[in-house]
Amino acid sequence: MVSVRQIAQLANVSPSTASRVLRNASYVRPEIRQRVLAIAKLHHYTPPRMSPEVAGAKTIKIACLMPSVCSDFFGKVLEAILEETSSAQYQIIIVQTHHQLEQFCAAILRMIEQQVDGVLILSGHIEDLPNTPLMALWSHNIVPVLINDDRLPVDCVLTDEHQLGGKILDYLRGLGHRHIGYAKMFGAQVGVDRSTRFQQLTMAAKRLGIEPIVRQYDNDCDDVISSLLTDPAPPTALVTSGTFATMFLQRAALRGVRIPQDISLVGYDNQSFIARLAPQLTTIEQHPHEIGRRAVELLLRRIAEGHTARDFTPEVIHVPSELVIRQTCAKPRSTRTIVPKRSYPVAP
After folding, report:
1. Of 314, 321, 31, which is closest to residue 145 (Cα–Cα)?
2. Were 104 and a residue from 71, 97, 231, 240 both cysteine, which residue would form a disulfide, CB within 3.0 to 4.6 Å?
3. Given pLDDT bands bounded at 50, 70 and 90, which one contains residue 145?
4. What is the model's pTM?
5. At 66, which helix (H) or strand (E)?
């Protein structure tokens, strides 16, 4: 029997597009839909057993494991997942793991017991996810797709971390910055290894001919500000997560540190409230909605193709990011040190 991938090749479209046509999903141009359906008919394509058309309107059960529904990033990913699976043929099971590996492993076992067809895993752990639970999914013919993490040999969809450092540093270099710091949010529980982001920034600095990143700050917000104020040659720009940048803006104002006059600030996460800050934060838009959409496409394609662990080659999909320029970056300050203009008592 001809496969979805073979139909895609014959129709000169991507496998995900062919998959959308064959499951009657939206967002496909009419001429492409007609071409794919004509080829499928010519080659007597029969939907796989997972398809409701064949399995007596069998509902496809998809589990979504996520650290928290309260996260802005993961919330947007989940929104896209629910939009892509809104038809009656899909049943979505949402499980919060609260950043706990023990809860994650327990959730995997429950999904096996419930005989789901696929699992979307929104990673939110500092530690590497264990390999054993994912292999257990494969052994039960359950397809896993990892989101926001690429540390396991399974399909994954995530931001193109390799391009982030270059985008940020190219912009800062254009403003004249050569002395740049990176602040890792203290105690952060995240899917992407933030030490990787520091490494990407350092490599991008070398490619662009900028002197190496001055240091990686791994403290709470007030400690970072204190370090900047006591440093005889502090960086002229700071790169950090959107959450840390938000706190930094608030605490810096209390300490008399002006953004961007004293130090420019760039955040990684273009969260919903970012544009309402004062000043508005320059940040990276990682397109979580697109990440969620692509993850669902990949999962449904894997289910339709009926892959098993034995004939499986992991696919990694990188979703490009976008630099959103607002108000927190300017040319480097003229003084070597940061001189607070006015400060207020800082609450303990």
Report:
1. 314
2. 97
3. very high
4. 0.75
5. strand 60-66
